[in-house]
Amino acid sequence: MTARFPVSALHWTVLVPAFSVVLLALTWGRVLPVAAVVVVAVFLAVAVLAAVHHAEVVAHRVGEPYGALVLAVAVTVIEVALILTLTADGGPKSAGLARDTVFAAVMITCNGIMGLCLLVGALRRRVAVFNPEGTGASLATVATLATLSLVLPTFTTSTPGPRFSTAQLTFAALASLVLYGLFVATQTVRHRAYFLPVKPGGEVIDVSEDDSVPPTTRAALFSLALLVVALIAVVGLAKVESPTIERGVQYAGLPSSFVGVVIALLVLLPETIAAVRAAARDRVQTSLNLALGSAMASIGLTIPAVAVASLWMSGPLLLGLGSTHMVLLAITVAVGTLTVIPGRATPLQGAVHLSLLAAYVVLAISP
């Protein structure tokens, strides 16, 4: 890990999160002119880069796989807040927003981020090498959570439409929390070695082999605070941009569900950049930890949150996927399984995953 902590309070990675939050406070809840929308978009992009920097500082201090977990959980917690805010403000038309955003996050992480990182890693070293035990456990948990939370509601009969009854939603929420908690314990305590980067021969890379000096505890804590601030700015500014996004989607004649795709793309930018940079440094396992960990956190934290929020929110909570999306989810799990089993991937596997993401985006635009 090569991230360095800025010694000056005037460093851009310190100033940008602060200025972005100020901009967020000034623009929240207001109708913005075109010039202001452009300024917000610029600060949103730079705040993403600042978040990536601080995530790498924290990851360098705590080591793997804790670093990937910190970024995944931080982004997802704030993503959940964004989903709840948009759902509360949107009324009946936002009944499927949580489903659309969570499924978009699964497709982007399991096909987009994973495919891009495998492609980068394989092009750099001919094959991308990772630990199939840890990656397989991650993929299995994501597949289970996605099926329980997004597929079963389409087939249940207790309530009309693709939705759970109260008892079913309670079970899905509790199952999501339990599975995610067990995975975190497996990743960080009992089988931590399964989630560490590996060499081409399969042996685990000892983090002590990294000759760069890690940041101090004080620097890491300061970066953690700035990471949270930057992520709040990213998600908040994405919310500020959402009316413009919605108008753009409507003007282009796209389905309203495409808003969830755009929101997921914006929210997952920090993890995407961090994952690709890790793959470029021959840390493909770290990239996969970020990708699959983000998908898992997105489901495991969002579903319980919206389940609780549904107690006071009016209107139905639609969670069940349509037939097209279920087919995409099924082939994503099948292809992901075949990718993970060997513990190594060529550029072909990366391209296959990226083609699935492209298919998802095309079908989101033209169902």
From TrEMBL:
InterPro entries: Alkaline_pH_Ca-Antiporter, NaCa_Exmemb. Residues 34-188, 223-365 form the Sodium/calcium exchanger membrane region domain. It is found in: Membrane. GO terms for molecular function: potassium:proton antiporter activity; sodium:proton antiporter activity. Keywords: Membrane, Transmembrane, Transmembrane helix. It is a multi-pass membrane protein. The chain crosses the membrane at residues 9-28, 34-54, 66-87, 102-123, 135-155, 167-185, 219-238, 258-276, 288-312, 318-341, 348-366. Its main location: membrane. GO terms for cellular component: plasma membrane. It comes from the Bacteria. This is Ca2+:H+ antiporter.
